[in-house]
């Protein structure tokens, strides 16, 4: 059975392995042991905290295979971004240039750097081992955090975003970075990516151009990748879009990957989440797949189950995995 639960300090070795396996471009899961240890500690404190409104909490989850007692994936939802450290993005917009004398009216696409998503919640740090990218396990891992948000809405903001990895080649080269960032940072994309994850982000404002970037002045390859995601994140993009997240013209300032957004209350899993009293017994084999979680913020657990009719029947192993008993109230939503 696969169970999603909060990360804990004992999971640090697997967490470091996940970060190493993600490669370049996953800024929020950096290959930086000290930063990862801080992320685990921050997550433990966040899950244990009593929260009335979204602050700077960060909730990191891991997925465990109970048959092998090993971790196979991780993901995070941050309560807010941009409060203590700036959160930058480029807004893809148009600048109008008009000459009445020449009868010319041009709309030029331009990138405007700003803080438009300050205070939004963020889905990030998704990684799942290749052997488990099947049997709906990727949906379990990604959507479990959405069910957590449904259980504890006071912990999150009115808007939720997801930063998506942009186009980067096998050598770790970003066409957008080569056309923009390299001119101002004088370093490779991988170096800048790690620096962003491991230090104060205020250096970005000091080095990046403060004025709009006219897109036609960039290289053709850079223009082509603005708002495009990397091939290896296609599945997670499909999952997020199914939940209602969509592209509204904001991109990452380093690789120009798309930033998806949605009003938090419009997220599919949150809209369809319901409470039900669980029954112990023999689970149905042909029912509708659902995500099921307990209602504990500190010891959150989430699994895939099947539901048929009005009842939700779980096996003893499933009840034990969720840390609930017969008759307890749980939360579920369609997968």
CATH topology of the largest domain: Aminopeptidase
Count the domains. 2
Strand content: 25-35%
Helix-strand sequence: EHHEEEEEHEHHHHEHHEEHEEEEEHE
Shape: elongated
CATH class call of the largest domain: Alpha Beta
Rg is 21 Å
Name of the CATH architecture of the largest domain = 3-Layer(aba) Sandwich
Q: Please identify the structural class as seen in this structure.
A: alpha+beta
Compute the separation of the termini in Å.
Answer: 16 Å
Task: List the uncertain runs.
Answer: none
Number of H- or I-type helical stretches: 11
- Which strand order spans the largest sheet, edge to edge or round the barrel? 1-2-3-6-7-10-9-4-5-8
Walk me through what this model shows.
- There is one protein chain.
- α1 packs across α2.
- Strands 1-2-3-6-7-10-9-4-5-8 form a ten-stranded mixed beta sheet, sandwiched between helices. A four-stranded antiparallel beta sheet has the order 11-16-13-14.
- The mean pLDDT is 92.
- It has two domains: 260 residues, Gcn5-related N-acetyltransferase (GNAT) (Aminopeptidase); 63 residues, Barwin-like endoglucanases.
- Helix content is 28%, strand content 29%.
- It has 335 residues and is of the alpha+beta class.
- The chain contains eleven helices and 16 strands.
């Amino acid at each position: 059975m696969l169970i999603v639960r909060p990360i804990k300090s004992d999971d640090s070795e697997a967490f470091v392995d996940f970060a190493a396996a993600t490669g370049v471009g996953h800024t929020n899961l950096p290959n930086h042991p000290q930063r990862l240890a801080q992320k685990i500690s921050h997550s433990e404190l966040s899950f244990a905290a009593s929260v009335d409104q979204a602050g700077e909490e960060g909730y990191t989850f891991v997925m465990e295979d109970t048959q092998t007692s090993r971790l196979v994936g991780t993901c995070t939802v941050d309560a807010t971004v941009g409060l203590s450290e700036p959160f930058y993005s480029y807004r893809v917009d148009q600048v109008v240039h008009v000459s009445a004398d020449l009868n010319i009216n041009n709309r030029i696409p331009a990138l405007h750097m700003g803080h438009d998503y300050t205070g939004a919640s963020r889905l990030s740090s998704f990684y799942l081992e290749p052997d488990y990218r099947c049997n709906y396990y990727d949906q379990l891992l990604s959507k479990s955090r959405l069910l957590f948000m449904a259980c504890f809405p006071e912990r999150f903001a009115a808007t939720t975003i997801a930063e998506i990895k942009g186009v980067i080649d096998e050598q770790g080269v970003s066409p957008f970075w080569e056309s923009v960032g390299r001119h101002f940072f004088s370093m490779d994309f991988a170096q800048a990516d790690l620096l962003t994850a491991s230090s104060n982000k205020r250096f970005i404002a000091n080095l990046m151009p403060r004025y709009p970037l006219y897109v036609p002045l960039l290289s053709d390859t850079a223009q082509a990748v603005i708002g495009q995601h990397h091939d290896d994140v296609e599945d997670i993009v499909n999952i997020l879009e199914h939940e209602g997240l969509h592209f509204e013209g904001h991109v990452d300032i380093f690789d120009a990957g798309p930033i998806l957004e949605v009003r938090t209350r419009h997220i599919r899993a949150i809209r369809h989440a319901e409470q039900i009293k669980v029954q112990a017994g023999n689970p149905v084999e042909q029912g509708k797949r659902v995500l099921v979680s307990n209602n504990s913020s500190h010891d959150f657990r989430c699994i895939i189950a099947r539901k048929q009719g009005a009842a939700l029947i779980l096996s003893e192993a499933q009840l034990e995995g969720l840390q609930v008993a017969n008759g307890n109230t749980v939360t579920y939503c369609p997968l």
